[in-house]
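Researcher: Quick sanity check before group meeting.
Model: Go ahead. Protein one:
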Amino acid sequence: MLFLTLNTFSATGGIEKVCRIASKAFSEICNERNSSLTLYSMHDKADVSTEPYITKKSFKGFGGNKYFFVIKAILNGTGQKCVIISHVNLSLPAYIIKLLSPKTKVIVMAHGIEIWKPLTGIKKKLIAKADLVISVSEFTKKQINEGYLVRKSVVIHNCIDPLLAHFPELDRNSMRSKLGLSPDDFVLLTVSRLKSTESGKNFDKILFAIKALGQQARNLRYVMVGKYDEDEKRRIENVCNGLGIGGQVKITGYVSDTELPDYYGCADLYVMPSKKEGFGITFIEAMYYGLPVIGGLRDGSVDALMNGRLGLLVDPDHQDDIISAIAKIYVNPSSFKPDRKTVINNFGFDVYKKKWERVIGDLAVS
């Protein structure tokens, strides 16, 4: 099996995390079948650390050399039983592999917005020629099936990283003290990149909700975790200052995966009423740590929250819906905590791996 990625081990972000987890699943599946996995990463450097997800011998990083990456991918991919691409931007080598080696099964992973928008050229051709398109949510699958001619499309939800810490290292109040928060504060949390070029996350609506709830919930605090660009950080700070809630909002910047559990552990509610989520892996991470969650009902968040079974779904365009949802959980948070067993049974690594085993096995005999 050949797995082609853009960036896996040297960058942060949801897709990169998905690729790391997928590589571990593919490696285990190959080992169990006396086969082998090779992962080619276009942008990772050759000396990047890949363990404990996969062994170094299974990996080759091309350090941004796109031409060499494409050539090597085609040479190695031709004749492989299965080639999986992590992103539609890798369509060129996958399409050529399929033309040169029709028996090779080509699988495209579809995450969200990158495939919702109309595709043209080689990307559109690959979607039609690929043996299988794996969507991370029913929402993304629907967008693909309505927009393109596809041989076969299957949903495999993202899963919780099996290497994610079981429990936060710092106790709740120690982490709060580190962030300048009080034990009595009611802490809202969002984990997401803050980029001025991306809209649809609805950070502002959360900020307006905090302002609106000021009289009945004076101890509301909001922690925004994730890499940011300066323009977006400045814009959010200006909104906060304009609303008079600057002291209630903390923008942390980048937080490593090893530190992230401590942030989940010190929060009371995870909120991200987005309308641009392909799935929303941070939702299932938050629920894994027992946090009530609020998500939008117009994107892949619906899958992560199991149609409202695990959390509250709101209309991301309606400010009052977001205010009402936060108020409900604020009054009685324990009644909105997700069932951890249900979370693991639906979004655990073992479930994820079995789904991939099934679809790969079905392709092998087709």
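Researcher: Fine. The other one?
Model: Protein two, sequence then structure:
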Amino acid sequence: MRHFLQLEELSDPKPTAVALGMFDGVHLGHQALLKTMAAEAREKGLRTAALTFFPHPRAVLLQRFGRQYLTTLEERAELIGECDIDLIITTPFNDETRNTRAADFVAQMQKHLGMVEIWSGDFGFGFEREGTPEYLRTLSTDTPFRVVEFGTKLALGGDMISSSRIRHSLDEGNAKDATLCLGRNYSVYGEVIKGDQRGRTIGFPTANLDVWEEKVIPANGVYATLVYLPDGTRYEAATNVGVRPTVDGQNVRIEAHLLDFEGDLYGQKLTLEFVDHIRGEKRFSGLEELKNQIQTDVADIRKILKTDS
């Protein structure tokens, strides 16, 4: 898998099947499209590519900012690559991109990629999203290429799998539904930075994770989590997401207490997976009551993670 940040970086056109979409989260629906395209492309001897955009069009068009992405650019590219995709192109979405006509965009894909197939779900691209599957079919009569509208949509629990559903589930603290839709635990990645070290004073030292400011984090509360160190070692963890109302009530933090771990994690970059929501965030009368609750949380988390393992 090779990752490019614009089409112009490619100068080796070969017959290529291209999947178009945002692919934020690379959930089971995205995986179905990508893997189906890859399997068919291999049978035909075609190269595979996924073309996506950053930032999200809504960030440019609607000026929406903050925590809105389920994956970083690197995570998204890696997950797409795991679906047997050869090339990932993350095209900048800006005023020039939004005003590019769909026909011109198709011409660029043919020139730089050698595109002979376009696969998409309900995605539209180009000026005013005119690049729908229906419109692309009209273009393909002049510059032949195959248009595949991937109509298979996956449902779980009566609702369709989508990036919006996953964001909503995380906003509700429903880590289990996010896992079902993603086919893996939802995760965040970041460097361990120094906090106020208050957890040490009550016997529960925590790793304070510095996560990309535009990455979605679950609702405030306590979670059963898994933490992976840079060398791949895995630890079970009790993780608090929130403003710590008993301590200072300021600034949302992700603080993980790694069970049965001793050592210094400052400066290390960790991956943290959310497995289940234990309870909401609450204020306690003091640190002693908080300590007793954490002991209960840890016991509950050990049971949950043992069951899920």
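Researcher: One line on it for the slide.
Model: The two ends are 30 Å apart (CA to CA).
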